[in-house]
Write a structure and sequence with these properties.
The protein contains 12 helices and 6 strands. It is of the alpha/beta class and 258 residues long. The longest helix is centred in the N-terminal third of the chain and has 12 residues. It binds iron/sulfur cluster (3 copies).
Protein backbone atom coordinates (compact mmCIF):
# COMPACT_ATOMS: atom_id res chain seq x y z
CA UNK A 1 0.00 0.00 0.00
CA UNK A 2 1.24 3.53 -0.83
CA UNK A 3 2.75 5.33 2.19
CA UNK A 4 0.51 8.09 3.54
CA UNK A 5 1.89 11.43 4.68
CA UNK A 6 1.69 11.96 8.42
CA UNK A 7 -0.20 15.10 9.47
CA UNK A 8 -0.19 17.00 12.78
CA UNK A 9 -2.54 19.93 13.45
CA UNK A 10 -1.68 22.02 16.52
CA UNK A 11 -3.71 24.86 18.00
CA UNK A 12 -2.46 27.80 20.07
CA UNK A 13 -4.12 31.14 20.95
CA UNK A 14 -6.95 31.80 18.51
CA UNK A 15 -10.63 31.20 17.84
CA UNK A 16 -10.07 27.73 16.24
CA UNK A 17 -11.85 28.97 13.11
CA UNK A 18 -9.05 27.83 10.81
CA UNK A 19 -9.09 24.26 12.10
CA UNK A 20 -12.86 24.26 11.85
CA UNK A 21 -12.50 25.51 8.30
CA UNK A 22 -9.93 22.81 7.57
CA UNK A 23 -12.19 20.01 8.71
CA UNK A 24 -15.63 21.15 7.62
CA UNK A 25 -15.55 23.65 4.81
CA UNK A 26 -12.79 22.84 2.33
CA UNK A 27 -14.14 21.69 -1.03
CA UNK A 28 -10.99 19.70 -1.80
CA UNK A 29 -10.23 18.42 1.67
CA UNK A 30 -11.15 14.82 0.92
CA UNK A 31 -8.71 14.70 -2.00
CA UNK A 32 -6.00 16.11 0.26
CA UNK A 33 -6.79 13.92 3.26
CA UNK A 34 -6.72 10.75 1.13
CA UNK A 35 -2.95 11.17 1.07
CA UNK A 36 -2.62 11.84 4.80
CA UNK A 37 -2.58 9.91 8.07
CA UNK A 38 -3.79 12.19 10.86
CA UNK A 39 -1.32 11.67 13.73
CA UNK A 40 -2.35 14.67 15.87
CA UNK A 41 -5.49 16.78 15.58
CA UNK A 42 -7.43 17.22 18.80
CA UNK A 43 -10.46 18.72 17.07
CA UNK A 44 -10.87 15.72 14.76
CA UNK A 45 -9.95 12.65 16.84
CA UNK A 46 -9.27 11.31 20.35
CA UNK A 47 -6.17 9.21 19.71
CA UNK A 48 -3.27 11.65 19.19
CA UNK A 49 0.52 11.26 19.29
CA UNK A 50 2.17 14.57 20.09
CA UNK A 51 5.67 13.23 19.52
CA UNK A 52 5.00 12.60 15.80
CA UNK A 53 6.93 12.22 13.60
CA UNK A 54 5.08 14.40 11.08
CA UNK A 55 5.57 14.98 7.39
CA UNK A 56 3.42 18.11 7.65
CA UNK A 57 2.59 20.07 10.81
CA UNK A 58 -0.09 22.75 10.45
CA UNK A 59 0.05 25.35 13.23
CA UNK A 60 -3.02 27.39 14.09
CA UNK A 61 -2.98 30.35 16.47
CA UNK A 62 -0.50 32.85 17.83
CA UNK A 63 1.99 32.18 20.62
CA UNK A 64 1.06 33.84 23.93
CA UNK A 65 2.64 31.48 26.49
CA UNK A 66 6.13 30.06 27.00
CA UNK A 67 4.69 26.50 27.13
CA UNK A 68 3.22 26.96 23.67
CA UNK A 69 6.59 28.07 22.32
CA UNK A 70 8.27 25.03 23.93
CA UNK A 71 5.80 22.60 22.34
CA UNK A 72 6.08 24.40 18.99
CA UNK A 73 9.87 23.88 19.03
CA UNK A 74 9.36 20.16 19.74
CA UNK A 75 6.87 19.92 16.88
CA UNK A 76 9.36 21.66 14.57
CA UNK A 77 12.01 19.05 15.41
CA UNK A 78 9.55 16.22 14.73
CA UNK A 79 8.29 17.65 11.40
CA UNK A 80 9.59 17.63 7.87
CA UNK A 81 7.47 20.66 6.92
CA UNK A 82 5.82 23.12 9.27
CA UNK A 83 3.25 25.66 8.10
CA UNK A 84 1.42 28.36 10.08
CA UNK A 85 -2.26 28.46 9.04
CA UNK A 86 -4.36 31.60 9.34
CA UNK A 87 -3.69 35.16 10.32
CA UNK A 88 -3.11 34.42 14.04
CA UNK A 89 -0.29 31.98 13.35
CA UNK A 90 1.14 33.85 10.35
CA UNK A 91 0.94 37.46 11.61
CA UNK A 92 -0.19 37.40 15.25
CA UNK A 93 -3.73 38.13 14.03
CA UNK A 94 -6.52 39.37 16.27
CA UNK A 95 -4.79 38.15 19.49
CA UNK A 96 -2.02 40.69 18.84
CA UNK A 97 -4.39 43.62 19.39
CA UNK A 98 -3.47 43.28 23.07
CA UNK A 99 0.19 44.07 22.38
CA UNK A 100 -0.54 47.79 22.52
CA UNK A 101 -1.31 47.86 26.21
CA UNK A 102 0.60 46.29 29.07
CA UNK A 103 0.15 42.56 29.68
CA UNK A 104 -1.02 43.18 33.25
CA UNK A 105 -3.72 45.61 32.09
CA UNK A 106 -5.00 43.03 29.59
CA UNK A 107 -5.08 40.33 32.27
CA UNK A 108 -6.90 42.57 34.78
CA UNK A 109 -9.58 43.46 32.21
CA UNK A 110 -10.52 39.78 32.00
CA UNK A 111 -9.70 38.19 35.37
CA UNK A 112 -10.23 39.31 38.95
CA UNK A 113 -7.32 37.23 40.22
CA UNK A 114 -4.35 37.33 37.83
CA UNK A 115 -1.87 35.52 40.11
CA UNK A 116 -2.17 32.22 38.19
CA UNK A 117 -1.65 33.78 34.74
CA UNK A 118 1.61 33.70 32.81
CA UNK A 119 0.67 35.01 29.39
CA UNK A 120 3.11 37.03 27.29
CA UNK A 121 3.01 39.36 24.30
CA UNK A 122 1.43 37.82 21.21
CA UNK A 123 3.91 36.62 18.61
CA UNK A 124 3.55 34.80 15.28
CA UNK A 125 4.89 31.28 14.79
CA UNK A 126 7.93 32.34 12.74
CA UNK A 127 9.26 34.34 15.70
CA UNK A 128 10.10 30.98 17.28
CA UNK A 129 10.71 28.39 14.56
CA UNK A 130 11.63 28.12 10.89
CA UNK A 131 8.55 27.74 8.69
CA UNK A 132 8.18 26.22 5.22
CA UNK A 133 5.53 28.60 3.89
CA UNK A 134 2.51 30.59 5.02
CA UNK A 135 -1.19 29.84 4.61
CA UNK A 136 -2.78 33.24 5.06
CA UNK A 137 -6.27 34.54 5.79
CA UNK A 138 -8.80 34.78 8.61
CA UNK A 139 -9.87 32.09 8.28
CA UNK A 140 -7.17 30.67 6.03
CA UNK A 141 -7.91 30.54 2.32
CA UNK A 142 -8.57 27.25 0.63
CA UNK A 143 -6.59 28.01 -2.56
CA UNK A 144 -3.48 28.76 -0.46
CA UNK A 145 -3.95 25.61 1.62
CA UNK A 146 -4.44 23.26 -1.31
CA UNK A 147 -1.62 24.83 -3.34
CA UNK A 148 0.83 24.64 -0.44
CA UNK A 149 0.07 21.15 0.81
CA UNK A 150 -0.13 19.56 -2.65
CA UNK A 151 3.07 21.36 -3.72
CA UNK A 152 4.97 20.03 -0.72
CA UNK A 153 3.64 16.53 -1.32
CA UNK A 154 4.81 16.76 -4.95
CA UNK A 155 8.16 18.25 -3.92
CA UNK A 156 7.66 21.54 -5.79
CA UNK A 157 7.72 25.17 -4.67
CA UNK A 158 4.20 26.51 -3.90
CA UNK A 159 3.02 29.26 -6.23
CA UNK A 160 1.64 31.86 -3.81
CA UNK A 161 -0.14 35.12 -4.50
CA UNK A 162 2.66 37.69 -4.37
CA UNK A 163 0.61 40.82 -5.03
CA UNK A 164 -1.96 42.95 -3.15
CA UNK A 165 -5.73 42.55 -2.93
CA UNK A 166 -6.15 45.49 -5.35
CA UNK A 167 -4.98 43.25 -8.21
CA UNK A 168 -7.70 40.69 -7.50
CA UNK A 169 -10.17 43.51 -7.06
CA UNK A 170 -9.39 45.01 -10.47
CA UNK A 171 -9.56 41.58 -12.10
CA UNK A 172 -13.10 41.30 -10.74
CA UNK A 173 -13.87 44.76 -12.14
CA UNK A 174 -15.14 46.03 -8.78
CA UNK A 175 -15.67 49.75 -8.29
CA UNK A 176 -12.97 51.02 -5.92
CA UNK A 177 -14.55 51.67 -2.50
CA UNK A 178 -11.57 53.82 -1.48
CA UNK A 179 -11.69 56.15 -4.47
CA UNK A 180 -15.45 56.14 -5.10
CA UNK A 181 -16.92 55.84 -1.62
CA UNK A 182 -14.19 57.20 0.66
CA UNK A 183 -13.83 53.93 2.58
CA UNK A 184 -10.50 53.15 4.34
CA UNK A 185 -9.65 50.11 2.21
CA UNK A 186 -6.50 48.18 3.15
CA UNK A 187 -6.39 46.44 -0.25
CA UNK A 188 -3.30 48.32 -1.51
CA UNK A 189 -1.13 46.93 1.33
CA UNK A 190 -2.80 43.55 1.98
CA UNK A 191 -1.71 40.26 0.43
CA UNK A 192 -4.02 38.73 -2.14
CA UNK A 193 -5.62 35.30 -1.81
CA UNK A 194 -9.21 35.97 -0.83
CA UNK A 195 -10.34 37.05 -4.30
CA UNK A 196 -11.02 40.61 -3.04
CA UNK A 197 -13.94 39.28 -1.03
CA UNK A 198 -14.90 42.41 0.90
CA UNK A 199 -14.66 45.00 -1.91
CA UNK A 200 -16.71 42.62 -4.06
CA UNK A 201 -19.53 43.24 -1.58
CA UNK A 202 -18.96 47.00 -1.44
CA UNK A 203 -16.92 46.94 1.77
CA UNK A 204 -13.40 48.07 2.47
CA UNK A 205 -10.73 45.40 2.99
CA UNK A 206 -9.58 45.43 6.60
CA UNK A 207 -6.34 43.56 6.04
CA UNK A 208 -7.05 40.07 7.33
CA UNK A 209 -4.62 38.39 4.91
CA UNK A 210 -1.80 40.45 6.40
CA UNK A 211 0.77 42.65 4.66
CA UNK A 212 1.72 42.23 1.03
CA UNK A 213 5.42 42.15 0.19
CA UNK A 214 6.91 45.69 0.16
CA UNK A 215 3.62 47.20 1.40
CA UNK A 216 3.89 50.97 1.80
CA UNK A 217 1.65 51.28 4.86
CA UNK A 218 2.72 54.85 5.83
CA UNK A 219 1.59 56.15 2.40
CA UNK A 220 -1.82 54.50 2.77
CA UNK A 221 -2.15 55.69 6.38
CA UNK A 222 -1.51 59.29 5.27
CA UNK A 223 -4.09 58.84 2.49
CA UNK A 224 -6.66 57.73 5.11
CA UNK A 225 -5.85 60.92 7.06
CA UNK A 226 -6.40 63.06 3.95
CA UNK A 227 -9.75 61.27 3.49
CA UNK A 228 -10.79 62.52 6.94
CA UNK A 229 -10.19 59.51 9.21
CA UNK A 230 -8.94 60.18 12.72
CA UNK A 231 -5.77 58.88 14.37
CA UNK A 232 -7.56 56.20 16.39
CA UNK A 233 -9.36 54.80 13.33
CA UNK A 234 -6.15 54.68 11.32
CA UNK A 235 -4.19 53.11 14.17
CA UNK A 236 -6.85 50.39 14.59
CA UNK A 237 -6.92 49.74 10.85
CA UNK A 238 -3.21 48.83 10.86
CA UNK A 239 -3.19 46.86 14.12
CA UNK A 240 -6.29 44.66 13.99
CA UNK A 241 -4.78 41.73 12.05
CA UNK A 242 -1.01 41.89 11.85
CA UNK A 243 0.44 44.38 14.29
CA UNK A 244 3.59 42.32 15.04
CA UNK A 245 4.55 42.58 11.36
CA UNK A 246 6.78 45.54 10.53
CA UNK A 247 4.97 46.45 7.29
CA UNK A 248 1.66 47.21 9.06
CA UNK A 249 3.31 48.53 12.21
CA UNK A 250 4.94 51.30 10.18
CA UNK A 251 1.45 52.55 9.22
CA UNK A 252 0.18 52.31 12.80
CA UNK A 253 3.16 54.00 14.45
CA UNK A 254 2.44 57.33 12.77
CA UNK A 255 -0.91 57.47 14.59
CA UNK A 256 -0.16 55.78 17.92
CA UNK A 257 -1.01 57.75 21.08
CA UNK A 258 1.97 58.13 23.39
S1 LIG B 1 -6.93 33.33 11.68
FE1 LIG B 1 -9.03 34.03 12.12
S2 LIG B 1 -10.32 32.21 11.86
FE2 LIG B 1 -8.18 31.52 12.03
S3 LIG B 1 -7.92 31.04 14.18
FE3 LIG B 1 -7.24 33.17 13.89
S4 LIG B 1 -9.06 34.44 14.35
FE4 LIG B 1 -9.76 32.34 14.03
S1 LIG C 1 -11.61 48.73 -3.42
FE1 LIG C 1 -9.79 48.43 -2.16
S2 LIG C 1 -8.90 46.54 -2.96
FE2 LIG C 1 -10.31 47.30 -4.52
S3 LIG C 1 -9.01 48.55 -5.87
FE3 LIG C 1 -9.93 49.92 -4.34
S4 LIG C 1 -8.36 50.06 -2.74
FE4 LIG C 1 -7.87 48.25 -3.97
S1 LIG D 1 -10.82 41.73 1.30
FE1 LIG D 1 -9.33 42.04 2.94
S2 LIG D 1 -10.48 41.77 4.86
FE2 LIG D 1 -11.74 40.94 3.19
S3 LIG D 1 -11.24 38.74 3.18
FE3 LIG D 1 -9.87 39.77 1.71
S4 LIG D 1 -8.00 40.28 2.86
FE4 LIG D 1 -9.62 39.81 4.34
Amino acid sequence: MKKKFRLGVFKYSCCAGCEFQLIYFQNHIQEVFEHLEVVYCKMAQGDNREEGPFDIALIEGAITQAEQADQLKRVRKASRWLLPIGSCAVNGGVPAIKNHITELEVQERVYEDVSHLHSMRTQPVDDFVRVDGYIKGCPMGEPDLVETVLSLLMDKRPNHFNYPVCVECKLRQNPCVLVSWNQPCMGPVTNAGCGALCPSYGRACYGCWGPAKDANAPALARQFERMGFGSQDIFCRFTQYASPKAEFRRGAELYEKH
